[in-house]
Amino acid sequence: xxxxRVPIINRFGVISTSYHEELLKHSSKSINEVNxxxxxxxxxxxxxxxxxxxxxxxPEEKKHLQDQAKKMLFRxxxxxxxxxxxxxxxxxxxxxxxxxxxLAQCKGEVQEEALNMLCxxxxxxxxxxxxxxxxxxIAESVLYRICCDASQKxxxxxxxxxxxxxxxxxxxxxxxxxxxxxLEGFEEQLIRLQPYLYALYFCGVSYSKYPxxxxxxxxxxKTGEVICFPQRLNEARVDPNTKQDLDFPDMKDISKPYSxxxxxxxxxxxxxxxxxCVQHQRSQLNEVxxxxxxxxEQLKKKLWLDSVLGLFILGDAAKLNISCLKVLMNLGKxxxxxxxxxxxxxxxKDNDFSWQWIIAYIYTTVLGDICLHATTSSLRKIAFMGxxxxxxxxxxxxxxxxxxxxxVELKEGNFLDLLKYFSSQISDNCCQxxxxxxYGLVYNLVKMTRELxxxxxxxxxxxxxxxxxxxxxxxxxxxRILNAVDIAEAELNDTIxxxxxxxxxxxxxxxxxxxxxxxxxxxxxxxxxxxxxPSSLLLKRHEKExxxxxxxxxxxxxxxxxxxxxFFRERHPEEELVRPYPDIVTRADMALRTIVEKQWEKDQxxxxxxxxxxxxxxxxxxxxxxxxxxRAMMKRREEKIHKTTKPYVLPGQTPSEESEPMSSSxxxxxxxEIYCIGKQNYDRLGDT
Length: 688
Prior knowledge:
The protein has 5 domains: about 80 residues, no CATH class; about 160 residues, no CATH class; about 250 residues; about 50 residues; about 35 residues, no CATH class. Helix content is about 60%, strand content about 0%. The protein is built from 27 helices and no strands.
């Protein structure tokens, strides 16, 4: 068989034989092998990354790690849905909450930003049963940080305030799940919370000077007693001043107390009904408000967790309706007046850990939220200044210590009235109720002033807030109250005068719980009221469906403390979600929305055509003006040099010669080109 030799063409120029053989081997190897592109390594939040981020001292490596952390924060922010209130196909709250907890272990700005994002998300996110495992993880992480790290430091840090806020919102949600009876099956997580709840009793002394933190810790303790088997904790609880051991129950001794839905007080139930009437514009609102006032004595009961929920829910309704605001202020006024009676003050002097001041403190927080986020300016003014004396503002600005004069009477429950009342009651030997509520008023006043920075629509309210705050700083001498100003300014990162720079934006961190009242009311209304739409986000899925779900823990997330384990739930496919058939109102809304969108598209097309017509008319008008300007210039030239020839005619050229070449090209020239040609000929004529 003849051998056919294929000529080899050297395309590389003059090269050595050995190098040519290596090139041939490399090319044959690349042809035979299949090129598989390796996927890019994703940004993983691991234990090694956090340790390297906190311990590195190399400037270049530190900058690289900070860039990676910022990318992780941006991804976490998108998964949290901060710009869409936790709604959207891109939102994955359990995974994003876990990432935020891990990023909060990085020191510096990354920690502050992660805590701010987590607090904001817990405020506005809706309640869903699939969040329960992650909420237990957040609760355990926060309690660990407070008990084992934050409370042991000699100074107060802004991260501690944010941690207590996150713990407050987390246990607030857990309490709602407890009312639903959804904590059945989470006995292991509840048992793991018990050591931290026990240690939290010893941390209260460290925060006794900061009522904003102490109120959140007391709420966490009380909620922990309710959901973590209170009979066990009550038997084993010891005095914080003693050093006795605490024996916690084993898993064998644990029963299942969450088989049925829990009952709530009449006060909370009527607050839920009031919120539902406001949302659906029911005519029975005034009647329900009258029934609510009949149960106002329940605010004074020791089972005060329902009262906290009721204040948040009624406060959200007061942002929309003036009658609800009036009832809320009436409840706050009666409660504070009864607690500030001489007999109650003597009792509170002996009991510094009384629960009444927590209810009053929560009321001041809800009132401050209404002053900022009510739907109308009249509601905001009434919440701050009251109903009767809105015109006489100078009377409310006279916030001086009136210790030697007659005591100030609490006329209304508005913010300024409370501020004036408690400023007259403050003294060195006053009860805890007096100075803690006054502390809360000043603390919220600083945050309200800061949040309105740069908001030109509320200049009047901002001016009033600033004047009130300056008067408090000038007249108040109590260090406990002045400490509230320092704590609030440190929490907001810096002090800003709203009248120096009007372009200052509002702070990024969470100042008030703006949406939590609405989320709580929406969830509890589905539990205690007849359903408007046959669906509930908090109802458990069927047992068979739960068995089919698999729970996996990614390796990159197994990096927390040995005490804490992470459980991830997979995102449920769309086929597994139970979507009820929409009723006639929902279908009508969907049809109306479709009609509106089509009409909007038609209007947009008409608007685009009109804009094109206007643009063409403007161009035509512009050309006409340029032509008129050129004619006026030619007329001035004729008057000046007394010549009727055109500027592009050379000397000795006849009009016929001039018109012949121009007939073919001048018709297509613009006025600017004609002017340039004429100017050149005119200059040439001047040279000759």
